[in-house]
Design brief:
The chain contains no helices and 37 strands. The chain is mainly beta and 420 residues long. Strands 21, 22, 23, 24, 25 and 26 form a six-stranded antiparallel beta sheet that branches.
């Protein structure tokens, strides 16, 4: 019997944090769809996709290295392996099998030398791997417990702002935020807390500045707290959204013609400096309220430059090139691109729950229809796999079966009713 060739897959695990990344230097994006990783070019009319398959269970974590050379993925379940991919050549590199019960978090070091993996609350392991060999460099129990997010932050800086041989990381969980140092020569891992003063917040996501001298931590109450790495103290509390900060990106700001700022070299990158010598930074926020916003400032003064609205909580944010565009993934299964003018454009829509029914239009293959436990019924165009019609089911009922005729769509629901 001849085998079937997969032409296209419709799906995106939008409820998984950081499940979507723009691939630097290309017009492609990579994202999670269940137990598979999909590489797709959204900028053209092509519907072609490349699939990376290396897991037996659903993917639970995804991370891409800074230059887009490597990709790492982890999975749920007892056989919870981490897989490192050569993204440039779309091939498998290493299977890392030290975790049990599930992988919660992954992150690459800025120079792509190391990968940190964190298991779930039953596994309790934090492991740092050498990417070139797939060997373990060091391991230990993660803190705080439970751990919500982890981020590499480049090299530890000395008194002159130069990088040392040690690397720095940050972990968050509950109201605790910890600063870690890692020595790749000895394997030593040490940590100490940041000082939040009298302020108490539960943290949701964390990122270092490009230069490694600041930490930006999102909270469940919709603030971003800014910390000075050198003295471990909080320097700003910036209210940015409602329903919590769900994703966060930190960038160096771009110069504009009407500014009085100059630019100077500062450890591994260029950062803007105002006329008083203050570094000007930009961070971008994905909110639980569906907002995407860009903030600009330094020290205690931060302003919102631009904002737009998307459907669903924004769990994935990834810069698309240096001009300021973004790829956005939401909890509603929507993939969008926010252009340089901060206008969102829908690239793909997907179900967010198991599919309960699937059928082609009666007597034709031009259209097909799907229903899902997410409460939606969707009609798709077979030519380009674009969404033609989306219908939301009544509250508290699930569509279970469908029939699509020329001008009529019949749907059977879990409450025993058939609706047209």
């Amino acid at each position: 019997m001849a085998s079937l060739e997969l032409e296209h897959a419709i799906g995106f695990s939008g409820r998984l944090p950081d499940a979507l990344f723009a691939v630097p230097g290309t017009r492609k994006a990579v994202y999670v769809a269940g137990g598979c990783i999909v590489l797709r070019e959204f900028a053209t009319e092509s519907t072609g996709q490349t699939f990376l398959r290396g897991h037996q269970n659903q993917i639970s974590a995804l991370s891409m290295s800074q230059r887009g050379k490597f990709l790492a993925s982890g999975e749920y379940g007892i056989n919870s392996d981490v897989v490192i991919w050569d993204l440039e050549n779309t091939k498998f590199l290493f299977r890392l099998s030290e975790h049990d019960y599930g992988i919660d978090h992954l992150d690459f070091s800025d120079d792509e030398r190391f990968l940190v993996s964190v298991g779930n609350f039953r596994d309790k392991k934090m492991i740092i791997w050498e990417v070139a060999t797939g060997y373990i460099v060091t391991t230990g129990a993660f803190l705080p417990t439970p751990l919500t997010s982890i981020a590499f932050g480049g090299r530890v800086l000395d008194e002159k702002g130069q990088g040392t041989e040690k690397y720095q990381l940050c972990t968050i969980g509950g109201s605790v935020i910890l600063y870690w140092t890692f020595n790749p020569k000895t394997g030593d891992l040490t940590n100490e807390p940041f000082n939040c003063g009298s302020l108490t917040r539960d943290f949701s996501c964390v990122r270092f500045s490009i230069e490694g001298d600041q930490v930006f931590a999102g909270t469940t109450t919709g603030d971003v707290l800014v910390f000075n790495v050198k003295n471990r103290i909080m320097t700003a509390n910036v209210p940015v959204c409602r329903a919590g900060v769900r994703s966060l990106v930190v960038r160096a700001a771009d110069l504009t013609p009407d500014t009085t700022r100059r630019t100077r070299k500062y450890y591994r990158s260029y950062a803007d400096v105002d006329h008083k010598g203050e570094f000007i930074r930009t961070f971008l926020v994905g909110g639980g309220d569906g907002s995407v916003s860009r903030w600009f400032g330094h020290q205690t003064h931060w302003e919102c430059q631009a904002e737009c609205q998307t459907p669903g909580a924004v769990l994935s944010l990834s810069p698309d090139g240096p001009e300021g565009a973004l790829y956005v993934g939401t909890s509603e299964g929507t993939i969008l691109r926010v252009d340089t003018g901060f206008k969102p454009h829908v690239l793909a829509e997907n179900h967010t729950g198991p599919i309960t029914a699937l059928t082609f239009m009666d007597g034709s293959s031009d259209l097909f229809c799907s229903a899902s436990t997410d409460g939606t019924i969707r009609v798709w165009d077979s030519a380009d796999f674009e969404l033609a019609v989306k219908i939301r089911a009544p509250a508290n009922v699930t569509p279970l079966c469908i029939a699509l005729a020329d001008i009529c769509l019949l749907v059977g629901f879990s409450d025993g009713a058939v609706r047209c």
